Amino acid sequence: MGNPAHHYTCHVRIALGSDHAALDLKDLLATHLVAGGHSVLDLGTNSTESVDYPDFGAAVGRAVVEGSADLGVCCCGTGIGISIAANKVAGVRAAVVHDVTTAHLAREHNDANVICFGARVIGSLVATEALDAFLAATFAGDRHQRRIEKIQRLEEAQ
Ligand code: RB5
Question: How far is the CA of 44 from the centre of ligand 1 (A)?
């Protein structure tokens, strides 16, 4: 048995959302996911008209928490704004990633259920490889579970 980070995950239902700044990256990632056999729930945006990233981060976060998707992918110019918005939905753990390493660690250590990319700061090949690494990784549990539970308690205290 190899590194769990490299186990292939089949058929995941994935909600995607982006603002106008990341439309191309979101569509490219959606195509990549469909080609990989996954189900895609595209929550927009679907044009280059200027929109507000919180609307799309919230939509992806709700889809994951409510169970219409297993995982989420969010894209904006930097990945930062949309991750902040997605993280306001209770139960979401959204992580901005920049490479394969941060992508698989986001799942292994943080049990991230939404992965976020900055279209203005990441190349499309790095983004697709990072997304694959995220999907292939599994949560390591153990001490990381205790830390996730502390994050959940922070949410419950609000
Ligand atoms: C939009 O111009 C830009 O602010 C947005 O895509 C994102 O980078 C925000 O964090």
Answer: 15
